[in-house]
Each structure stands twice: as structure tokens, then as C-alpha cells.
Amino acid sequence: MSDAHRERELAKERGYDLMRPIDEAYERGEISQSEWHRRVQALIEPVYLSANSDQLGSGHSGTEREWDVSRGLIMQAVDRPGTFLDVGCANGLLMASVERWSHQRGLAVTPYGVEISPSLADRARARYPQRHDRIWTANADGWQPPMRFDFVRTGLEYVPRRRREGFVHHLLDHVVAPVGRLIIGKTNENRGESQVADSLRSWGWTGIREVRRPHAHPDVEMSVVWVSRP
After folding, report:
1. Do 98 and 86 touch, CB atoms closer than 8 A?
2. Residue range 90-147, pLDDT digits in tens
């Protein structure tokens, strides 16, 4: 691997060097899917829990303004009142941000969250006690929620690569409300390569929408993709 390629991959995912051995072990059949989740959680959880900023505690290393520019891209898909579920809600910051951004646009959006890590879910409940009953501890892949949601935001990187198609189908079949939207992102992708959108199309979904925004790295773009449920 060239230095330029590794630099680009690190720009897309700060934990690239740490995640790659876990992904490769799963692809070789050396670990199960549950072990994949356990190892990823063991990698991410201490970093998020020891973060010295709200943004870092939700997986973003930039400033509050940079957070708004980056994560705010998902608001391109949240264009009406409704319920919003953040899959992998970490410390709850995105839930709070979506509520704030929606209010600024005159939209009443009620945020919910689901988090695989009990410790992170507890952190989110402690930070936002008014949302205590709207934050669940569960692995969203296979989770049967008590309700459906108008907007469900997730990342494909939350499951092993070979599980991503099934993960999308599960969320659309069991978590997204009728005529609701599954939002994927924000994702850092190679400039000019719509990998998430192309994957969704290859899995049979149509009517894919995508927005992109420049990244600090010249060979990377930020993307948010969404698909509507019939």
C-alpha cells in the first residue's frame, strides 16, 4: 500500500489502521459476526468515553462548527416533521443536533437513539435525561424496535462488509416507517466515487438520493445517501 493511499484511507476513517485487522480476520472466517462487534466495540468505546469534547465523544475530531458542517449534511434528507432514530447514537450529540437543526428550520422532529454499547447508551441518557426513555441499548442489526421511525440514520460500517446488504434490508423492513427514509452517512468516500449509492442500487433499491460536500483531503468527499420506503 502506498503512503498516499494510506493517507487517503486515514482521512476517510481515523481508525483505519486499527479496524483493518478486525475486518480482515472476519473476511478470512477467523472470527464470528458477534466477535467482530465485540472487537470493534472494545476499540471504540474507550475512546468515546474518555473524549474531552462532545464532538469527539460522538466520533468527530473537529470543532463544534466543523461538526455542524459535517454532520449537518444529513439534514438534506430530513425535510419534514416526524421521528428520527440515530443508529449508533454514542453520547447522543447527533440526536440533540438534529432536534436543534430541525427547530431552526421550523420542523418538529423528535429524536430517538439505539446504541450497541451499554456504557455509551448510559452516557447518552445521562447527558439528555429528558430523552432517557427514547434511547435503547441493542444491536440494530436484528433489533425489533417497539415502533417505526420516519427517518433512520445509520452507517454501513456498523456491520461487517458482507452483512451490509442484509443490514439495510432489515432496517427498511423492520425499523423505517412506511414512506419513511433510511439515511446512510455521513460517509467519507473517494472523490467522484458514489460507493454507498452504487451499493444500494446493486442490492435492488431505486430512487436513491445523494448529496456530497468537499472534504479537507482533496481526494475525499463527504456523502449522505438516502432511500425511501414505499
Report:
1. yes
2. 999 999 999 999 999 999 999 999 999 999 999 999 999 999 999 999 999 999 999 9
How far is residue 50's CA from residue 123's CA, in Å, rounded to a whole number?
11
Q: Residue length, the chain?
A: 230
91 burial (CB, 10 Å; 0-12 / 13-18 / 19+) is: buried
Contact 207, 200 (CB under 8 A): no
Of 154, 175, 174, the C-alpha closest to 225 is: 154
**Pick from 183, 182, 181, 192: nearest CA to 214:** 192
Instruction: Match 440514520 to its residue by C-alpha cell.
Output: 153
The pTM assigned to this predicted structure is 0.93
- Rounded to a whole number of angstroms, the CA Rg of the chain reads 17
C-alpha cell, 198: 452504487
Distance CA(3)–CA(87), nearest Å, equals 33
State the DSSP H helix or E strand holding residue 181, giving kind and residue range, or none if neither.
strand 176-190
Partners of 83 in the beta sheet? 110
